[in-house]
Amino acid sequence: MNGSKMEVRDGLWYTEEHEWARVEDNIAVVGISDYAQKELRNVVFVELPEVGEELTFQKDLGYVESTKL
């Protein structure tokens, strides 16, 4: 990405790909960093697993597709 700094928030664990996770009551909540959201600009499609679906460590859990104008 363009070399600008990313804000790091307390209580979140980040990946090198700008994804984050936090745990609330034994449930993992995941997202993408503010920096990644700004870089993606126009999100046109998001695919996520069903609530309660079992996931595999270090495997893709969804997809985000965007267009840059």
Describe the structure.
The protein has 69 residues and is mainly beta. Helix content is 10%, strand content 36%. The protein contains 1 helix and 5 strands, in the order E-E-E-H-E-E. The protein is globular and about 40 Å long.
Mean pLDDT: 83
Total beta strand runs? 5
- Main β-sheet description: 3 strands, antiparallel
Low-pLDDT ranges: none
Secondary-structure element order, N to C? EEEHEE
Helix content: 10-25%
Structural class: mainly beta
Gyration radius over CA: 13 Å
Instruction: Order the strands across the largest sheet as they lie in space.
Output: 1-2-3
Form type: globular
Tell me the strand percentage band: 35-45%
Distance between the termini: 16 Å
Number of helices: 1
Key words describing this protein structure:
69 residues; 3-stranded antiparallel β-sheet; mainly beta
Q: What would you say about this model in short?
A:
The chain is mostly beta strands and 69 residues long. It is built from 1 helix and 5 strands, in the order E-E-E-H-E-E.
